Amino acid sequence: MEVHKIISELQFKAVRSSGAGGQNVNKVSSKVVLTFDLNASSALTSEEKLLLETKVANRLTSENILILTCDEDRSQFKNKEIVIKRFITLITNGLIIPKIRKETKIPKSVIRKRIKNKKIISEVKKNRKKPDLD
After folding, report:
1. pTM, whole model, 2 decimals?
2. Rounded CA separation 94/90 (Å)
3. pLDDT tens digits, one per residue of 11-38
4. For residues 95 and 48, is the Cβ–Cβ distance under 8 A?
5. Residue 65 DSSP label
């Protein structure tokens, strides 16, 4: 995965941010919307695209377009930086292939220890009962 190549494929749009902000909020478009077309990307291989489709499926539209927004800061430039960082972390985490778990045998010492503990607890519970005085 080439990060600079993928960043060049990103599309940005500045939108007016919602919420409080005073008189300036109606004039300045500080919210940044990032869109990335997964199918049209030439920076990703077909295997990487399939992996991302499954890993970030809940964030993709029906046309496999990833949309991220940021309106944390009052500066459009800072919001753009934040949304790019989020995008890069999302893509890199999506491309990580988890290691396959190898089943291991439970050691006999662990089994013995568990059974011993069960017997001890059983004895403690037996001793809690009222004694039979018959």
Report:
1. 0.70
2. 6
3. 999 888 776 666 666 677 888 999 999 9
4. yes
5. E
User: Are the CB atoms for 21 and 74 separated by under 8 Å?
Assistant: yes
The b-or-e profile of 71-108 (16+ CB within 10 A means b, else e) is: bebeebeebbebbbeebeebbeebeeeeeeeeeeeeee
32 burial level (CB within 10 Å; 0-12, 13-18, 19+): buried
What is the DSSP code (8-state) at residue 19? Answer: S
pLDDT digits (tens, 9 = 90+) for 35-78: 999 989 888 899 999 999 999 999 999 998 999 999 888 888 99
Q: Which of 36, 46, 41 is nearest to 84 (CA)?
A: 36
Whole-angstrom Cα distance, residue 78 to residue 87?
Answer: 14
Cα separation, 78 vs 28, whole angstroms: 14
With b for 16 or more beta-carbon neighbours within 10 A and e for fewer, the 114-132 pattern comes to: eeeeeeeeeeeeeeeeeee
CA–CA separation, 41 and 8 (whole Å): 10
Cα separation, 60 vs 62, in Å, equals 7
